[in-house]
Amino acid sequence: MKKKNQLPILEKVTITDIGAEGKAIAKVNNCVVFVPYVVPGDVVDLQVTQKKKSYMEARAVKFHQYSEKRCQPICQHFGVCGGCSWQMLPYSEQLFYKQKQVEDHFSRIGKIQFPPLLPILSSDKTEFYRNKLEFAFSNKRWKTSEEMQQQEKTSKNENAVGFHIPGKFDKVLDIEKCWLQDDISNQIRNEVRRYAMEKGFSFFDLRRQEGFLRTMIIRTSSTGEVMVIISFFQENKKWREDLLQHLADTFPQITSLLYVINPKANDTIADQKINVFKGNEYIFEVMEDLKFKIGPKSFFQTNTAQVCKLYQVVKNFAQLTGKELVYDLYSGTGTIANFIARHCKKVIGIEYVPEAVTDAIANSDLNQIKNTSFFVGDMKKIMTPEFIQQQGQPDVIITDPPRVGMHADVIKAILQTHTQRIVYVSCNSATQARDLNLMDAQYHIVAIQPVDMFPHTHHVENVVLLEHR
Question: The pTM is what?
Answer without folding.
Answer: 0.92
